[in-house]
Write a structure and sequence with these properties.
Porin, two-stranded antiparallel sheet, single chain, elongated, mainly beta
Length: 286
């Protein structure tokens, strides 16, 4: 009787635990924006890592949540277009992201060793672009208002927020190594609602206004053509194109994932009801 009582208390938690798995991810991060125009590339890529958990609604549908750490970066001196090289801008930014995703596998790993999958959801991320000046000092760019953000003379250019929402989505493939371990490879895009991941978006402002409002460092970091060996030291005319506000910036991750079931029964314990899947047998003896 005592064992039956203990079983009735702990059985719900045990059933729930059978549906969870731990997710680990490691790979590359990159971005698309005014300093990196390619839609998807490993050029100038950095590293990305994620830790998360997955709750299996069925053997094909799951809810995922992840916490990710990554870095994105790009520099004009690595671009192929001469006009971008002459601008000579650069940036780096750490990315921290939390998300919640719906994940759908096209096939059940109960029946197959391999399946493609898709996912999508919502994310909150934090970024903070910076660059290194000519003496090697790290300089955060947002406080400098390099394009007049927040200045009274440019009321249409608002300060951008460093914490924002994004829409993550992507595709991948999974391979069941054992009943309890699944390897995967995925590419995950992040549609953002900001054009300032790289601190570049629109046109150059009046250098006298920028100098008076933010000081010489802002002027130095907003145009860096004069630092090149044969560069033009003359600051561009106010209104000249610095970046394009037509499209928002993106960032993305690609790499290898490992999913580990938090039980000893593997994928069979993750599935939902139907045809005996996901059944937890009663103890033979009490």
């Amino acid at each position: 009787m005592r064992k039956l009582l203990l079983l009735s208390i702990f059985m719900p938690a045990f059933v729930q635990a059978q549906k969870f798995s731990l997710d680990l991810f490691g790979g590359f991060s990159n971005y698309q924006g005014d300093l990196q125009e390619k839609k998807f590339t490993t050029d100038q890529s950095k590293l990305a890592f994620s830790l998360g958990a997955r709750y299996h609604l069925t053997d094909q549908l799951a809810i995922r949540t992840n916490f990710s750490l990554a870095k994105i970066a790009a520099a004009d001196n690595k671009n192929k277009k001469p006009v971008l090289q002459q601008r000579n801008l650069s940036f780096e930014s750490n990315i921290t992201e939390g998300n919640i995703l719906l994940d759908y596998s096209f096939y059940s790993l109960e029946d197959r060793k391999f399946t493609p999958y898709v996912f999508g959801g919502i994310a909150v991320f934090h970024f903070n672009p910076y660059a290194y000046d000519s003496t090697g000092n790290k300089v955060f760019l947002k406080p400098l208002s390099t394009e007049g953000e927040g200045l009274a003379q440019y009321p249409d250019r608002k300060n951008y927020n460093l914490t924002q929402f994004a829409i993550p989505f992507g595709v991948g493939v999974r391979w069941k190594v054992t009943d309890n371990v699944v390897l995967g490879y995925e590419i995950g895009m992040r549609k953002t609602f900001t054009d300032y991941l790289d601190d570049v978006s629109t046109t150059y402002v009046d250098p006298a206004i920028l100098l008076a409002a933010k000081g010489p460092k802002a002027l130095e970091m907003s145009y860096r053509g004069g630092e090149l060996k044969n560069g033009n030291p003359a600051y561009p005319t106010p209104g000249a194109i610095r970046g394009s506000a037509k499209y928002k910036d993106w960032y993305y991750f690609s790499g290898i994932s490992v999913s580990i079931g938090l039980n000893g029964r593997g994928e069979k314990a993750f599935s939902g009801s139907g045809h005996g899947k996901g059944r937890i047998d009663c103890p033979k003896k009490l």
